[in-house]
Amino acid sequence: MSDTQGITRRTGGRQKRPRDDEGRMPLTDHLRELRNRLAIALLALFVGVVLGFVVHNWVYSQLTHGICNINTLHGVGQPTKGCPNGVLVADGPLAGLSLSFDISLMLGVILSSPVWSYQLWAFIAPGLYKKERKYGLSFVATAVPLFLAGAWIAWWVFPKAMKILLSLVPGGMSQMIQGEAFLTFLIRMILVFGLSFEIPLLLVGLNFAGILSAAKLRSWWRGIVFGIFVFSAVATPTGDPLTMMVLGVPICVLFVLALAVTTLHDRARARRKAVEDPDSLLDDNVASSLDLTPSDVRAETVSAEEFAHAEPMVYHPDEEEASVPAARGERMDDIT
């Protein structure tokens, strides 16, 4: 049995193609790889959801601890062991099941994030250059801590923001919040804070791609700071000044850090460009330097035998005059 037949038998009747150095492969192989990686990601998500369902009661008690222990409410629903002030209620027969599934799904996405994020990167990375892969890993390594920092700030400020909102309820009214609405509200707030912390990283990425310079960022800083606080006021679910300041001030600090990074990057790029091409830094009205270095021009050597058998070049004035294009006169006639 030959080696080719052995490879075909081991791969189930399909001969495996050697991997291309640049990551190129036929469309069918791309689709097959995408199917396999999606299957692995979905399997990891399913396992994460199952594990999340096991601990969802404990997670729910941690999520609701802050709001259920606010003691400044005027009137609330029925107090329970898990929620002493009774502000959270379940509306409808399927509310408990729906809330448990939402918490389990959220935990499944978080627990399986290392697996599905790696599958996504492994599918994209072969089509990137080495420099692009290095930048991609650097930005991912920076984006994850930034998102976690924003999520932690949202978790810290959430009970304080809810205390302000619940204190606005009139004395003659009771405040009750559906469990699903509370969970949606909390997740939205965490996502808004986490994704907002990625904005300075996006500016750095545009600078590294050569789209946005540090000089433009410095000239736009007033409008950018104003836009940050407008965005903080609109994007935060609570809308109170405390939450807006808690979100806006850290983003402004991150913007200053991003401005420093882009400035250093532009200076390093300018120094590197000055070494490679000094004339690139000249003004448009200044003439560039001329390269006066003599080039090595070597005449083609011809042997004596080739020179003796070469046909002589004879000059014929009549032929040159005849070769003057008659179309010149025709063009004059056409113009006339």
From TrEMBL:
<feature type="transmembrane region" description="Helical">
    <location>
        <begin position="244"/>
        <end position="264"/>
    </location>
</feature>
<feature type="transmembrane region" description="Helical">
    <location>
        <begin position="185"/>
        <end position="208"/>
    </location>
</feature>
<protein>
    <recommendedName>
        <fullName>Sec-independent protein translocase protein TatC</fullName>
    </recommendedName>
</protein>
<keyword id="KW-0472">Membrane</keyword>
<feature type="transmembrane region" description="Helical">
    <location>
        <begin position="38"/>
        <end position="59"/>
    </location>
</feature>
<comment type="function">
    <text>Part of the twin-arginine translocation (Tat) system that transports large folded proteins containing a characteristic twin-arginine motif in their signal peptide across membranes. Together with TatB, TatC is part of a receptor directly interacting with Tat signal peptides.</text>
</comment>
<keyword id="KW-0812">Transmembrane</keyword>
<feature type="transmembrane region" description="Helical">
    <location>
        <begin position="220"/>
        <end position="238"/>
    </location>
</feature>
<comment type="similarity">
    <text>Belongs to the TatC family.</text>
</comment>
<comment type="subunit">
    <text>The Tat system comprises two distinct complexes: a TatABC complex, containing multiple copies of TatA, TatB and TatC subunits, and a separate TatA complex, containing only TatA subunits. Substrates initially bind to the TatABC complex, which probably triggers association of the separate TatA complex to form the active translocon.</text>
</comment>
<feature type="transmembrane region" description="Helical">
    <location>
        <begin position="103"/>
        <end position="124"/>
    </location>
</feature>
<keyword id="KW-0811">Translocation</keyword>
<keyword id="KW-0813">Transport</keyword>
<feature type="transmembrane region" description="Helical">
    <location>
        <begin position="136"/>
        <end position="158"/>
    </location>
</feature>
<dbReference type="InterPro" id="IPR002033">
    <property type="entry name" value="TatC"/>
</dbReference>
<keyword id="KW-0653">Protein transport</keyword>
<dbReference type="Pfam" id="PF00902">
    <property type="entry name" value="TatC"/>
</dbReference>
<keyword id="KW-1003">Cell membrane</keyword>
<feature type="region of interest" description="Disordered">
    <location>
        <begin position="1"/>
        <end position="25"/>
    </location>
</feature>
<keyword id="KW-1133">Transmembrane helix</keyword>
<feature type="region of interest" description="Disordered">
    <location>
        <begin position="308"/>
        <end position="336"/>
    </location>
</feature>
